[in-house]
Amino acid sequence: MNEVTRCGWVNADPLYIAYHDEEWGKPLRDDRALFELLMLEGMQAGLSWYTVLKKREHYRKVFDGFDPYLIADYGDAKLEELLNDPGIIRNRAKIAAIVANARVYGNIVREEGGFAKYLWSFVGGEPIVNNWTSLAEVPATTEVSERMSKALKKKGMKFVGPTIIYAFMQASGMVNDHILECVCRSEG
Questions:
Q1: pLDDT (tens digit, 9 = 90+) per residue, 3-44?
Q2: What does each C-alpha distance from 69 to 72, 88, 139 come to in angstroms?
Q3: Is 41 one of the catalytic residues?
């Protein structure tokens, strides 16, 4: 049996392997899908992506498919309902940030002509391709993630620090950080 090489952060769970092989690092250019990914990346702050990934389907259910226009209208009753849902990470600040960020999303779409258009502008519309040989070489932040973080914060978004933003950029394919030996490297 041939051993397949993947990026060092992937564990043996078929869910995680499928995420790595089918989603992570593939250029994502859909406004709503990018909003969902950015919100979920914010949920992982202080935790692991694996923890969030296992809860992703439930997040989609309770957050109306991550429709930012529906989420922007959430009131206190919905926030309390979410805080009592054991299927998500029940952190008041993180849940409130999703609602606040949904409101900012609408402003970005209006001002910038689209969420994807705006976010991809930070990388010139094309993925940044890195040539890492090991996970140890991959940075936690970059100048671009710091710039995007600062710009999103200035627009009013929360849980968008430079480390979260860099993880988001990797996951959304704005950055190809599959290590050189990874089976998915050429696909990213």
A1: 889 999 999 999 999 999 999 999 999 999 999 999 999 999
A2: 5, 20, 34
A3: yes
From 16, 36, 41, 105, the catalytic residue: 41
pLDDT tens digits, one per residue of 40-90: 999 998 899 999 999 999 999 999 999 999 999 999 999 999 999 999 999
pTM tops 0.90: yes
Active site residue 132: no
Long-range contacts of 69-76 (CB under 8 A, 24+ apart): 69/102, 69/106, 71/98, 71/99, 71/102, 72/99, 72/102, 72/103, 72/105, 72/106, 74/99, 74/102
Residue 121 tokens read as 């502008």
